[in-house]
Here is the input.
Amino acid sequence: MAIKKHELANQPWDAVVIGTGMGGAACGYELAKAGKKVLFLEKGKSHLSGSDSLTGSYAEEYWGIFEKDEQQKSNILKKAGRWFTPIVDTTEQKISSRFFPFAGVGSGGSSTLYGMVMQRFSPDDFTPSVNYKNAEGACLPEQWPIQYSDLRQYYKKVEALFEARGELDPLRKDYLDPIAARAPIAEDDFSGELYQHFQQQGLNPYQPPIACDFVEGCLNCQGFICPKNCKNDSAKIFLQPALAEFSAELLDECQVLKLEAEKDRVTSIVCQWRDQEIVINGDLIILAAGALETPNILAHSTSTDWPQGLANQSGMVGKNLMRNLYDLYFVFAKRKVGHDGPKELYLTDFYTPEAGKLGIIQSFGFLSPKSTIEGMENDIQYSSVSFLLPIFKVFKPLTLLFIKLMFSRMFILVTTSEDMPYEDNQIFPSEQPGGSIAFRYKARKFDLDRISRLRNHMKTILKPYRAFLMKQADQNKNFIALACGTCRFGDDPKTSVCDADNKAHGLENLYIVDASFFPSNPGLNSGLTVAANALRVADKILGRS
Here is the structure.
């Protein structure tokens, strides 16, 4: 018989996992499978029961075009599995921007929103300082404390569990393992036309591995919860089996406020569960609340032994924030373009060491016009031209119609570049536990110069197509949700938060397994690596490696 939710806090747990995204769900699943009694804590609502969840469309489609009420937006975002508390961008001294980051909060975390691309990091991604020797001021390690070889078996395991299908990167076949093929690109699809165009340019496009079952009527749910259960995310692959088959339980709508600890051990977890404060105990604590929230929790976990916050003797908790640098390219097509299909194109030609590791190119998939216009309004509101906001609102319906027409005639490509870690790009804890966090992030000249070089390449390889570039690289709002690096791992406790096994320095029972452990940020989709590493950490905990 399942334990009733209100009784979960009173149970003894072998492991308590904070967060159910790729890292938390993977690690908790493996521990539960090995016989551990596991409790998952999730800040958001669980959509596993399907009760009042909003699925099949972007959350923005559920509120009116003139919706102003922040609480109403928050309620809708919560039901849609999205981050539902505003965060504050303090980068500009004169203007602070307040917005909801496009991140997942709920069962499955951000994996419920992802585009399902399963991309491995490259062996050279684990030696970042070799690739970026002139990154002045960047806190780049010579190498990660683990290497590609440490993750290869786990990459293969996750790819199999998620049933990844696609082509192998032609430039990286030497160290990749075979996967199942996807259906070929339709002959009348514009992505097929671009595929051939890039090949004629001497480039190496391929269909990226996608974690999707491709059922009839599949919506390729990028940006929202899948209503057909064909998206293979961490909720479906890890969390549900852990709950159904092993000794695991889930407490959703549970906000972790702080961790209480002695000198070398976490003793309890203080949470806000719905309208009451509860205390939960576990022998092991797996922290995977995401690179924005994990440092916030640690910063509020102060004590006599940990005056700067838990696991923060190095002062690195919250620092070295990275988020990738993105640009969007709207390529004009001669015919109507459908955006409801999976991501069909991927190129790493400009992400090799020989090319300077400038970034990758991929098709974007579906981009919601409604979400786009909401972002535009927020950008205007918190900018030097905020006086234009009333005019924008008057023409908002017409602008939305124009964007819909534009999207129907354009194929969207996105370039992604690795950004460097800098100590003063960082997360600032909320004033109160569980409150709104703030952050500061400024792209440096070194990063923007690389973006400029990649833009020049894009101009060349897209000819003779007409394309509109929407510069996003220095815009924090749209991509801060892809944060990483704020609790980096490393061998030296003076310069890192956790060790090579992702165990927090100085604490015998706290592990950090979300993307905050990255000491550098390969400009590739990170979900596969986060999951693979979490399985590696579980094996370390269980003494299996």
